[in-house]
Amino acid sequence: MQPRDYDLEALWMPFTANRQFKAAPRIFVAARDMHYTTEDGRQVLDGFAGLWCVNAGHGRPQIVEAIRAQAGLMDYAPPFQMGHPLQFKVAQRLKELLPGDLDYTFFTNSGSESVETALKIALAYHRARGEGNRRWLIGRERGYHGSNFGGMSVGGIPANRRAFGNLLSTVDHLPHTHDLEHNSFSRGQPGWGAHLADALESRIVALHDASNIAAVIVEPLAGSTGVLVPPKGYLERLRQICDKFGILLIFDEVITGFGRLGAPFACDKLGVIPDLICLAKGLTNGTVPMGAVMVRKGIYEGLMAAAPENTIELFHGYTYSGHPLAAAAALASLEVFEEEGLFKRAAELSPYFEDAVHSLRELPHVIDVRNMGMVAGIELESIPGKPGARAYEAFLRCYEKGALVRWTGDIIALSPPLIISKNQIDELVGTLAGALREMGRQ
Ligand SMILES: Cc1ncc(COP(=O)(O)O)c(C=O)c1O
Q1: Is residue 385 within 8 Å of 273, Cβ to Cβ?
Q2: Residue ID of nearest Cα to ligand 1 atom 7
Q3: Bridge partners of 199?
Q4: CA 281 to ligand 1 center in whole angstroms
Q5: Which strand (E) or helix (H) includes residue 116?
Q6: What is the pLDDT of residue 118?
Q7: Which fold has domain 18-56+342-441?
Q8: I want to staple 39 with a disulfide (CB 3.0 to 4.6 A). Which of 11, 14, 27, 123 is the partner?
Q9: Could you say which architecture CATH assigns to the domain 64-339?
Q10: CA–centroid distance, residue 179 to ligand 1 (Å)
Q11: Where are the domains of the chain?
């Protein structure tokens, strides 16, 4: 290995145990298709699509070339009161891709910004209709909606809130749907748990009154807290209750968008259409930061109609909304997804992936395996007093053996690029199996 020509100390790494990492760094220097190259020249099979985002695999020439060409043509254009062609083209393409009348796109630069944007649109929409009392935002325990204030508030991860105080005050949470007693080793949607959606009516509406509630935001499949697959009928019930009380339903599809579940979006796969959808990650295949909020026609039109002629209808936006390089990357990524039929491919590969991950069932420490589409969670029994330590060890062992997996709490998540081959699925799952067997022998 070449000696590093940089120092590790000055960087404060996000969501990372900085001191632990710097004592034993893991550095990637290149990526192509299904593999990363480490600084010491090893190939690492990407079992996680980077961080749930590189759905078409790494270094795709069509995407790289589109970014390069756009950088040479026009590096930047202001998004406020000015336009450039590519962002309109991406919005048009998304409109064609999304079901129902989710016809309008508001561009952001990340999943976190998409969440803030969606929450603000929900509040503004109700206010524009003369229902400005509707200020409560309802999230769910074990939800992850990014790391900004709105997202943290509606999110339900204690560690993400511990250091930051009370956050937004007009927020409440539904119960999560994770229950090993009823649902362990489910394949696809578990049968138990639809009734948990009823808490929206029986507890939240009963307590706060529907006239005060603006929106419910959920991940259709919760990714970051360990792949929590929605019970059969659960999202349908949430939709019904939201409709009954005039509450907007927001799906955070930052992870589930762009083919991850074997359909373009989770709302296609699960047959429930929300009012707003948060997107990011796969939108540009992870290449250039970009997020988007998809909005139903009636919401857009409501906000347009409420504002006087020739005035700004929504006081919101970012310097880099619809950035030309991101838009070029998004357009090229959407082309690659389509030309290669990647969403369909994900659906076709899912049963093989499902069988592969469920083969881990009998291995040491495994207390659950769950999956949907091309995502799976393998839950390990925690070491008493050391939550997360076991999955971290499995992650490290996999990395040393040449596979990148993700750990969250004591859950290993797999979410490979959708171009993965069956042999590579075997290799990925085999590597994890090897790590778990070794850990069982200790
Ligand atoms: C469901 C969900 N929402 C929002 C985010 C935040 O996205 P970002 O890290 O791009 O801000 C994530 C990130 O993993 C996510 O999984």
Answers
A1: no
A2: 111
A3: none
A4: 8
A5: helix 111-128
A6: 99
A7: Aspartate Aminotransferase, domain 1 (3.90.1150)
A8: 27
A9: 3-Layer(aba) Sandwich (3.40)
A10: 23
A11: 18-56+342-441, 64-339
